[in-house]
Amino acid sequence: MTSSIAFSTSILRISLRKTVLTGLLVYTLTLLAGTTTQAQTFEVVHSFARVPLGFAPYGGLVQDARGNLYGTTNNGGGNGSGSVYKLTNGQLGWLFTALVVFRHDDNGFSPAARLTLGPDGAFYGTTAYGGYPGGCGGYGCGTIFRLNPGGVGRTVLYRFSGPDGNWPLGALAFDSAGNMYGTTEMGGTVGNGTLFKLVRNGNQWTYSVIYNFDDVQGAAEPVAGVVIDSAGNLYGTSLEGGDSDFGVVYELSPSSGGWSSRVLHSFSAGYGDGGWPNAGLIMDAAGNLYGATAGGGSGYSGTAFELSPSGNNWNYATICNLTGPGNLPGPRGSLVMDASGNLYGATYSAGAYGQGSVFKVVQSNGEWACYTIHDFNSPNDGANPIGDLMMDAHGNVFGTAWTGGPYGGGTVWEITP
Asked: For the chain, which domains are there?
């Protein structure tokens, strides 16, 4: 049985291979590297050791009403199967507590997505493996689970079998009616992933696939979850698909006959727009969408982009080109936006030391500018930030570094404005 670290590196190996454009070695600094916003400070909140309580925080963080942080690790636990942890901020700093230690069994293991706080105060998440025994090469195709408020008491809500999806790697999302949506990177009728819905009736959940992704100019292999607007439309990204097979931004809209899909933007991976969007989307109050690509762009280390609605169409704009030594991969997790409309993101291994960076995208007079806030340089602070970023009510940005740190198991970090 493959360990969760082997699972994670297999996904990374796919993405790393895709973010190198053969023969194109560009070293133009389109990101204003070394330029920082003076007031912001970086701090390591927690350093993971390679212990059975969990390490390698692949997913990002979520916060409850009391300010506690919750996250998942992809390794540690029983047979290297991962964990759910809690960080509580007290007088002596942040206190780490392991809430769930996953086991190598049919209840699910190796969580890759961040948790989602549901409308009932419980936490919802997914595991990449486990579920029905023997499925998906013998590892299981993944599960959906619920944790009671406070992060204890795990219940498995659904076990994937393959035709209904495989590898749920993105965060779950709730609509205004309390329905839950998510994606699987693989599986489905075509094998290129699914978009699913769960409807709650008391303590029971009914699962259905509402869309099967394909690779014929449409979306394929969605790594991230979806964002939902007030009309119930779903928006997301896919790692592949589109006119050039470098990924797309897609929309699914509810209709009387089911769900209709369309591609809002097809990436080319060249100088203009980037390619391979691993990260999901965020939406501002005006309905604009923001996201990031892991490769391509003029610096060949990814881009940050904006999609603005214009009638029935969408206008695409690249708002930041990222770069790093050796054309290393850019953002893998979703961006966050502060109250002033500034964006924050993290690159997986681009940056001054090739171990990742945190950047800020600022808009002024209709123009966007990019600034490096922090370059990771393990073992001091971790390496390879990969999960979705999170912002608290005070504008503090939190994230996770999947590897590195003083004990080698990754870190949780905070940037204070």
From this structure: 4-416 (2.120.10.30)
